[in-house]
Amino acid sequence: MLVMKAIALVPALAVVALAGMVFAQDPPKEPAKTTKLDFKKDIIPIIKANCISCHNKDKAEHNVMFPDKMTEEDALKNARMWRNSAREVKKGSMPPKNNGTMGDKDRAKLVEWIEAKIPRPARRPGGTTPPPTTPPPTTTGGN
Ligand code: HEC
Q1: Cβ pair 96, 64 in contact under 8 A
Q2: Stretch 110-121: mean pLDDT
Q3: In angstroms, rounded to a whole number, what is the distance separating the alpha carbons of residues 47 and 106?
Q4: How far is CA 140 from each of CA 91, 95, 112, 137, 143, rounded to the nearest angstrom?
Q5: CA 52 – CA 13 distance, rounded (Å)
Q6: Centroid of ligand 1 to alpha carbon of 95 (angstroms)
Q7: Cα(45)–Cα(28) distance, integer angstroms
Q8: What is the CA radius of gyration of the chain?
Q9: Ligand 1: distance of its center to the CA of 49 in Å?
């Protein structure tokens, strides 16, 4: 009976999926995220609209500064600042709540681009332990 066989397969698949999840917690190499977003076309306008008023060369809050003429190369060099930006935007703490609203789409785009282009540094095998990663925010959606 084909149907019985198919049903018997379900738990087996579940086990495989579960094992996959367990092992995925410490993958030998994180699968690279990809993005179709373009720095110039998609990212610069988001930064200009939402961030640059407080983070520019004249007023660099918290030493975070987005230059007038942003380039992708420049962003890759300032990896830490950009990764922090993704973190803050994800948490919802940037831009500050009293300062306009940043659309969810723009948040998602900015985070997507940063995570794809500026991933966290790979764990060094056997070397010094990497700095602890900040736990994800405990709230689920909403503010
Ligand atoms: C209204 C002004 C304002 C805007 C707009 C703004 N920021 Fe900030 N930002 C601040 C201030 C003030 C701080 C430092 C105090 C703090 O951490 O709350 C800060 C801190 C930061 C930090 C450092 C946080 C840390 O603890 O390391 C990052 C990264 C950052 N902002 C990114 C952004 C990004 C990305 C945007 C746009 C999506 C943005 N900010 C928009 C005012 C602003």
Answers
A1: no
A2: 91
A3: 9
A4: 10, 19, 19, 8, 9
A5: 49
A6: 6
A7: 36
A8: 20
A9: 13
pLDDT in tens, 52-85: 999 999 999 999 999 999 999 999 999 999 999 9
Contact between residue 30 and residue 119 where contact means Cβ atoms under 8 Å apart: yes
Q: How far apart are CA 64 and CA 58, in angstroms?
A: 11
User: How many Å separate Cα 115 from the centre of its chain?
Assistant: 4
CB burial of residue 69 (10 Å; 0-12, 13-18, 19+): exposed
Query: Residue 51 — very low, low, confident or very high, per pLDDT cuts 50/70/90?
Result: very high
Please report where in the chains the tokens 């940037």 appear, as a residue: 94
Residue with tokens 């961030």: 51
Q: What is the atom index within ligand 1 of the atom nearest the CA of 100?
A: 5
For the chain, how many residues are written? Answer: 143
The response to whether residue 78 sits with its C-beta less than 6 Å from ligand 1 reads no
The mean pLDDT value of the chain amounts to 82
Q: Answer whether 117's CB lies under 8 Å from 43's CB.
A: no
